[in-house]
Amino acid sequence: MNHHTSDAHTLAAAYALGALDTGERADFESHLEACEACRQEAAEFGATAARLAAAASQPPPAAIKPQVMAAIDGVRQLSPRVPSTASAPAVGGMLRSRALPLALAASVAAAALGGVALWQAQNGEDVRQQARQAQQRLDEVSSVLAAPDARTVHGRAANGALTTVVASDRQNKAVFTAGNLPAPGAGKTYQLWLAHGDTMRPAGFIDHDGTVVLSGNPADAGAVGLTLEPAGGSPQPTTAPLLLMTLPT
Predict the structure, then answer these.
(1) Cα atoms in the Cβ-side hemisphere of radius 13 Å centred on 193
(2) 3-state secondary structure 212-245
(3) pTM of the complete model beyond 0.85
(4) 138 and 21, same structural domain?
(5) What is the extent of the structural domain holding 132?
(6) 130, 146, 162 — which closes off a domain?
(7) Which of 136, 203, 229, 235 could be cross-linked to 214 through a Cys-Cys bond (beta carbons 3.0 to 4.6 Å apart)?
(8) In terms of domains, do 128 and 214 share one?
């Protein structure tokens, strides 16, 4: 492993997402045998990545299957790919240097964008714009998860929703994920809050299962809140919090 022993604690996310090479993975697994904190953190990152991917997933457009089936007969198959040993070291070094960001993005993007590529090429600017916006959101989420100081906390809201917050002091950002979130109902929305002492400051919205980067400044916040508010949101909470979860430190 090309890291000092003291740096091993920062590799839990890369390990959980399969972004370490064979030697690094073996060394980190040896480290895990003696480090309960890293075992727990690696498990939390793995669970979080799975929930983020599931939350970001969306079905491909209904018309994509018949279009693909109709085009199959006219698509020439590619020749088998033969790896080039000469270029392997350079490529390997590049992949190792970018392994964590790529793995993080892939863990979230695989389900979200898997069926969009062909549809995007055959439809207009609206679909391309949606894809760009989705990529921007994934990049934001990935930057938080990839931060060396990323920390995770899990919770359960009063309405049964399973929640996760990943926060990074270096990025000064926090990511909120919800699963099993009941529909808010007509004229209602779920609003997120950052608790700064006794002051609750708006931090965005989440209307269904999904993942959002909290707006506002989480640096001095002590907790993340979730309330059910009128559509459009409120400047201050108008209902009792469904969730008030301490930010990870």
Answers:
(1) 28
(2) EECCCCCCCCCEEEEEEEECCCCCCCCCCCCEEE
(3) no
(4) yes
(5) 7-70+84-146
(6) 146
(7) 203
(8) no
Q: At what angle do helices 125-146 and 36-56 cross, to 10 degrees?
A: 170
For residues 28 and 1, the answer to whether their CB atoms sit within 8 Å is: yes
Mapped onto helix, strand or coil, the DSSP state of residue 181 is coil
What residue type is 175 in one-letter code? V
Closest CA to 177 of 45, 58, 51: 51
Query: Number of structural domains, the chain?
Result: 2
Let me know whether 136 and 220 are in one domain: no
| Claim to verify: residue 161 and residue 206 sit in the same structural domain | yes
- pLDDT tens for the chain, 249 residues: list them: 444 444 666 677 777 767 778 888 888 888 888 888 788 777 777 766 666 665 555 566 666 667 667 666 666 666 666 655 544 444 344 334 344 444 444 555 444 444 445 445 455 566 667 667 777 777 788 888 778 888 888 889 999 998 989 899 888 999 998 888 999 999 999 999 999 988 999 999 998 888 889 998 888 899 999 999 999 999 999 999 999 999 877
Q: Are 97 and 166 in a shared domain?
A: no
Which tokens go with 87?
Answer: 């270029």
